[in-house]
Amino acid sequence: MIELLFLLLPVAAAYGWIMGRNSARNQADQQSREITSQYNKGLKYLLDREEDQGLEYLINLLEVSADSVEHYLTLAAMFRRRGELDRAIKIHELLLKQPALDNPTKELIQIALAEDYVMAGMFDCAEEQLLVLVKQKNLQALEILFNIYQQTSDWKKGISIFEQFPTLFTKQQLKLGVANFYCELAIEKQQLKLIKKIINIDTNVVRPLYELGKASFIKQDYLKAISYWRDLLVQSPQYTPVFIDDLEICYHKLNLASDFNKLIEKEVARGGILIKLKYCKYLVSVDQTDKAISFLTASLEKQPNIRGFSSLLDLLAIKNVDVGPLIDEINSLVKSYIATKSEFQCKHCGFTSHTLYWSCPSCKHWESIIPSRGLDGF
Ligand SMILES: [Zn+2]
């Protein structure tokens, strides 16, 4: 509570000075005395540790000048940190009633009030505040509003904001967000054509191509699935582990296995370990196991990887039948180690999981969870 006093003393001093100056001009001595006395009363309550009454007194004195707005904002922020949202809201609402506020200050208070509402779960009130600000092209308001729609799974409203104000969506996270909103709505309504509306957004968004490929795959339209997933493989190779096995099935279903191998040969230099393992599988299928072993060994020397090591053991077991069972036994230990490792990791906050989430459950960023990399990854 002592920090409250430090915060409020300058407010009281500034207020006394302003009122003193004004009183000389407009003879407001009486009012000044009254409010100063109320201030003293409020501070006394605080000193006496009667916090509730003290704060009520001070909040009720808010019809002060614009000079003290900053102090009140700090005070409200402190209430919010303490979880006293009703007080933070009260201060912000009273501040907004001050007639002398300039536009930037007013927007600052509106944003702060919307944040209080969000924290208090009063999404409707927050939305109302924020929509006004978004119309005034306030980007901070747009981000908060978009987060509310994400939190409430209101994909339709988010898309509607994007369609009304597309030029405001300049930040990468907002672009990824809106693309994922289209995907969520398309899946919810089972109208995949909605995804096509966003597929050309000017950023490397992963999910639309992935979902379109997956939907085609389920419908056994393998040609279309290949088309979407090939584009995705070229655009965002780090996501290859998510769909490479199904992509291979597509080629096989269409009797185009040789085209799949050509694709793998083309991508092997820049691809991760799974592409390299697919390449080894191809070499083995054409009786070039020795070449596969030397390729994988050289690759692991450059970039050690536990999955690669396990596959190398598989290849060695094929070539060395006499010690095959022993190698298999070692490999089963390696595989049980791999099973303990998370397949996905958020590149923003480090959250790890066995599932691919399009929005990180921890930091809520869109498409920040990618297949794990490095020694234990892909
Ligand atoms: Zn995260």
TrEMBL record:
Q: Does the keyword Metal-binding apply?
A: yes
Q: Which residues form the LapB rubredoxin metal binding domain?
A: 344-371
Name the keywords, alphabetized.
Answer: Metal-binding
Query: Which molecular function term from Gene Ontology is one that the record holds?
Result: metal ion binding
InterPro entries linked to this entry: Rubredoxin_2, TPR-like_helical_dom_sf
Pfam families noted in UniProt? Zn_ribbon_LapB
The protein in question is named Lipopolysaccharide assembly protein LapB
**Which organism's genome codes for this protein?**
Pseudoalteromonas ulvae
